[in-house]
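pinging the channel bc i need a second pair of eyes. not urgent but kinda urgent?? the chain im working w is below, pasted from the shared doc
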Amino acid sequence: MRSQAAETAPLMGFHDLGHEGEDFRAAALAGLAQPQKQLPAKFFYDARGSQLFDQICELPSYYPTRTEIGLLQRHAGEIAEAAGRDAILVEFGSGSSRKVRILLDALEAPAGYVPIDISRAHLMSAAQALAEDYPELPVLAICADYTRDFALPGDLPEGVPLGFFPGSTLGNFAPAEAARFLKRIAGLVGPSGGLLIGIDLQKDEAILHAAYNDPEGVTAAFNLNLLQRMQRELGAELDLAGFRHEAHYNRARGCVEMHLVSRRRQRIVIGDRGFDLEQGETIHTEDSRKYTLDSFRAQAQAAGWRPLEAWIDDRRLFSLHYLVAA
């Protein structure tokens, strides 16, 4: 349970396993050289991108965050019972840490919290704030690309790992990548560990369109921030005003696709490399796959998990799944 102590507490530790600048440059050069130009969605989340995503989560049209928070609040006791005592909560993509606080307040004697995120600055800010609010809870932050192989550090407190992967971020992965990720997490938490994961469900296309094309323009700014990040970090030469945001539901693929559309013929230059775009050509920045309950359960089972419980909101927009490593 949350401590009421007034004093602040430092992080138990910080492990930096990331090389985000180098990775971003390599990914941008490789992606822009493809016939369908692309930039990996994981690079949305620098400090500015993380702030914009937090704003997206507050928008009236963006249902996933408030629906998932409602499910966590409603079923926190059941989740805590499934996790048992001494859980070490390992969150992949820690974000603003709003959701994890609901779990920490419900868990019985949690042994520690391990936030993992690729955005170093955002991770440190969120992890330190949580350590100060929960001074008796060991908090060990890890800056890493959780879509790649890595090991949890050896200085974790004793306890049973419980992975936490909210927000339906799994939907950003291609099917083969999602399968590898689920297998990797099963290996990290071990045979006694669990995973609480948020999964977005298939629904009316009008709801999806509103969620990814908000009239406030925040999602557009979030998408365009990838280009601004290329300017800031890679010294890219490009005309930001020459691009616009586009998001649409691809029914055949079962996912929302997000693109940056070139308004005219133009060129992006990074170092000594140039990439030409025609008017209307796109840079594919994100997929957000939508599941059925059965399709996700089948994928989880194939990756070495046993579905234990699933919770769904009344409108059947979103789902939370508790899995145990088989």
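so The first strand starts at residue 13 and ends at 16. and The two ends are 29 Å apart (CA to CA). — does that match what u expected or am i reading it wrong
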